[in-house]
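Worked Example 4.2. Read the sequence first, then its structure tokens.
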Amino acid sequence: MIHAPSLAIGAGIASVAIIVAFLAFNIFNNSPQLVTEPTPTIQESSQAKITAATFLENGSPVLGDPKAPITLVEFGDYQCFFCNKFFHETEDSLLKNYIETGKVKVIFKDFTIIGADSSTAANAAHCASDQGKFWEYHDTLYNHWTGENNGWASKDNLHQFARELGLDIDEFSKCMTESKYAQSIVKSNQDAKDLGLTGTPAFFVISPDNKVTKIGGAQPYDVFEKIFNSQLEK
């Protein structure tokens, strides 16, 4: 599956005023439990400060219409079994019914918790983004997934994926050698930790009125459908 062309994050997204308190969310990977938290008025100084940047920065280009009323933020690891499961079983239907129709926009953020190849693959996706092909490379990674820490995301393979997508290999190799996006990935990982995440995938649905619904694990399509429709009906 190759996504439709991605669009850059618009000023409207960057200025979204989302401020949510850091709360002890009860989230279990692959559990159907959903938690909705309203925008709070008090931020405890001893807790991590959660702002719009926690959700929207240090991630991918936006997939979909930047003006879409709902934002779906996914934290994932390219080596993760359940991330791959979500990609193959659910993402395509979300793409067709909500993203391509302008109802939902998506941002992918890295939470590289499985192994060294996770961070290398994440850097490769961002290097592909420099050439306008983040989402194509993102899809390629999941389409070549064969397990965790078994070498499929080696540097040689990551370069081969870039060749298959027609990327400028010299530019891609320079980006990889310099680990150009290492700090961005570290910051994204910290965002995940600040939000209380311990596993992947994890999702945050930001509604038109800026309330946040947290979805833990590779939930089926109907879970997302129910949440999206309820927010679109408001």
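Now turn to a second chain, presented in exactly the same format:
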Amino acid sequence: MKKYNVVILGATGAVGIEFRKILLERKFPIDKIKFLGLTTVGKEFDFGGKKIKSEAVVDGCFKGYDIGLFSAGGDISKKVARRAVEEGCIVVDNSSAWRMDPEVPLVVPEVNPNDVDWNKGIIANPNCSTIQMVVALKPIHDAARIKRIVVSTYQAVSGTGLKAIEECLIQTKDIVNGKEISQRKVYPHQIAFNALPQIDVFLENGYTKEEMKMVNETKKIMGDDSIQVTATTVRVPVLYGHSESVNIETEKKLTPRDVRELLRKAPGVTIVDNPTKSEYPLAINAAGKDDVFVGRIREDESIANGINMWIVSDNIRKGAALNAVQIAELLVQKGKI
């Protein structure tokens, strides 16, 4: 079996840590691996029983490497990705830097795998909340064409990073122990025992960047600009796992039973939908899992062709690291590297 040289940029963050775990779990065919960082140069990382030191991003650091998994933020990706491509490395970037670039494919392997075929060296990993939604909706769109999507998200603090997880835990401990909150640096308001209807900054239209990411990325991934999408994204005091309430309107009539049958056959989807036994997708059950979990599938009785559903997935795994590794696997399968 052919093996490949892999470089990870941003190995210390929540997604970078998951990159390392998933590459080993899925036995990605690695010959050599390199970790690159900006503030972690010289730090040792364990990878499959070997100690590997993080190196600096310098000219030539991507030469001889086949694929780069990037999760170091959009500004860094903008500065570094093109250099990596020039040095012969295909980049799978987890930031928002390249997602809406018309020259860059935005890929979810279960949804639009063939888009990797037209990559020019950079492939964008979509937003975590978008990924899990389109995995569940693509089979429905193919069968009945979705006209409109209304989504409200309940997103875990891990989506903001390790510092946000720490802040949520510290605040929770303070409150439980009857103390004043000792830390509030990551979010504009207390996150423990709260819900914040703001993820990222607000735009002129009153929506946040996170909400508009879901609108624009969904259309690009699904390959259909006619789908109308509106989103409200909310941060909740959950550590891992984004939950979404999704309402769709389809061109063709589908019953809840039809939707369940479509999703049972869909790659990467698990149905958990037995409300009489209080069985439905939960963030705590999705954490650490690869699949997108769907439940509460029911007809929207306010319109002719409407369906409601509840979609949950681990935002750090399927919503970020796993999807990127799956893209790398797709490149291998298609002989693109």
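Notes for the reader: The first strand starts at residue 4 and ends at 9. The chain has a mean pLDDT of 97.
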